[in-house]
Amino acid sequence: MPASTSSHPTARLVALDWGSSSFRAYLLGDEGRILERRAEPWGILQLPERDFRGAFDRITAGWSSASAPLAAIASGMIGSAQGWVEASYVDVPAGAEQLARELTPVPGTPIRIVPGLAQRGAAPDVMRGEETQIVGALAAEPGFADGVVVLPGTHSKWVRLAGGRIREFTTYMTGELFSVLRTHSILGRLAPPGGGDPGIDDGAFARGVKAAQHAAGGLGSLLFSARASVLVGDLPAGSSLGYLSGLLIGDELRAGLARGGRPAALIGDPALCARYVAALEQLGIGEVPVLADTAPAGLWTIAQYASR
Predict the structure, then answer these.
(1) What is the pairing mode between strands 111-113 and 104-105?
(2) How far is it, in rounded angstroms, from Cα 144 to Cα 134?
(3) What is the mean pLDDT of residues 278-284?
């Protein structure tokens, strides 16, 4: 990789984690060490006038020069059909080496975009961005190379790894369902206006997790209990969102554990992962490690493979 012309003489790579709602940039030095990090609320759905080049130039200002720009690599929804340049999908099974072979260049820039992953056949599924987080997690903890990892989020992923490659995965729309039900359904109307997300220590959350584990009729028949429990006096109105969150996460865990077994790790936002840890502990599954901010290591690893 080229030597740096920035204020960081050991800089080697600009790494971009660019999703739907946020934009994180990392200046990486030798061996992928983070020299500087920046973040802006410039996800692809919030970016005014879709000015991707302007956003890139602003967030990386001072990191390189026009005459000798640093190489840059990006992952996430920036490579979707709604992003800057659409990147391809690589079929599973795949790991860092396969991803590195299919980087998509952004014309007129030093940026290359990591492809997403596609699962075809009877259970089709796709991911963008999570594959890079997984590569980074494996760089930090190679012991997870065989097993199941979970990435909680708007669209949670349960991913089976074998030999350090992603073999299969399942998406659960847990986070999006919570948001939709909270904002656009009758289930959210009992919560106090302006209340934050329910905390993981809320007893109502634990009650929701437990209820989801014993719902013979499935989640669809259980969701209304988030409202009915309040109306019959079994649950305070202010706890209804905590209970709803427990129902949704509990149902995801029920299905994921039945399908894939005990997770070897959780990867993602620490606060959200903490909620999953609490739910797993309630189910008798403890000591599941949490790995956060793994995208920079993943981007560095993929860039290294691409430069060979």
Answers:
(1) antiparallel
(2) 10
(3) 95
> 102-141 pLDDT, tens per residue?
999 999 999 999 999 999 999 999 999 999 999 999 999 9
Can you list the domains of the chain with their CATH numbers? 13-141+296-306 (3.30.420.300), 174-288 (3.30.420.310)
Q: How far apart are CA 267 and CA 269, in angstroms?
A: 7
Q: Which two tokens stand for residue 247?
A: 């129902």
Q: How far apart are the C-alpha atoms of 148 and 162, rounded to whole Å?
A: 9
pLDDT of 6 strictly over 70: no
* 279 in Cβ contact with 253 (< 8 Å): yes
The whole-model pTM stands at: 0.92
pLDDT-derived band at 216 (thresholds 50, 70, 90) equals: confident
pLDDT of residue 189: 87
Among 174, 142, 139, 138, CA closest to 156: 174
How far is it, in rounded angstroms, from Cα 254 to Cα 247?
Answer: 10
Banded model confidence at residue 191, pLDDT cuts 50, 70, 90: confident
Q: What mean pLDDT value characterizes the chain?
A: 92
User: Mean per-residue pLDDT for 78-98?
Assistant: 98
Contact 19, 76 (CB under 8 A): yes
Whether residue 238 contacts residue 277, with contact meaning beta carbons closer than 8 Å, is answered with: no
